[in-house]
Input
Amino acid sequence: MKVGITCAGIGAYASGEFIRTSARLAEEAGLAHYWFPEHVVQFRSYPQSRYPYADGSGQDLPEQSNDAPLQFGDDEIPFADVRNPIVDPVLGMAWAAAATRSIEVGSNILILPQRNPVLLAKALATLDSFSEGRVLLGAGVGWAKEEADAVGSDFASRGKRTDEAIDAMRALWLEEASTHHGTAYRFTDAYAFPKPSRAGGVPILIGGESTAAMKRVAQRGDGWLPYNLPLSEAPATIARLHAMTRDSGRDPAELRIIKIIYSSAELDDLRRYRDAGVTEFNIASSGELPLGEAGMAAMFAELHQRILAPLAGW
Output
């Protein structure tokens, strides 16, 4: 069973040296994928937004809504220090891929409606070509209206534009002469090369636990990146996702379901997640890795012994 890690890209863990060293050591320890988060800008307050994980619900504002959101509480601001650096995930993925040979590099998650999909498709196809098929696009719609406004992206239509962006990128990756006629993006007989190394293009995994996010997985996704998926709810939730996928005329067995866990996770809990339908795990290190190479290597060795080695036989 594959296990990856999210350990870089924020604060003290946003340096090129840390990313290069930790990605190499993660690969040597047997980790299968290496992930980066995204926020283009941060704000001291978010009067127009609701952080979806503040109350543990994982529920964001409706994707097609201009309704006034709830205000943040004092303990609900998502960023402890708004001056902390957060690296661009695509550049971070390229840096990590260049330092490694086999580990997949991905975004968990990139805010897709804030990106131009034609430009993003080119960047990801180039990186996938260079890395010989190791790129994963973890994508979501975003929760911060303030951030969307800063990049000139319409927040209320973010769900529809995310769906269209996925379709447009797939056309650019999979068709020799690519055509897409949508509302936000349109092109006819566009030639975009290089193509991704993977025959099906760069895998697109969807983040979020809302009904809209799960429909997006079922209809368009190569997989799902759940964060707030309690063990008690996992069997029913994944069964519902599989049913939605079948109803969309697709095979749910082909979905990669990569659940974020913490390094303190118990093997019995991971086994129960596997039995519920989770196919892979992603360890969120929460700033636990030492910055020095020796300490980093020791912690990766401990993760290998405690988590990776037992899961290898599953």
Q: What stands out?
A: The radius of gyration is 19 Å.
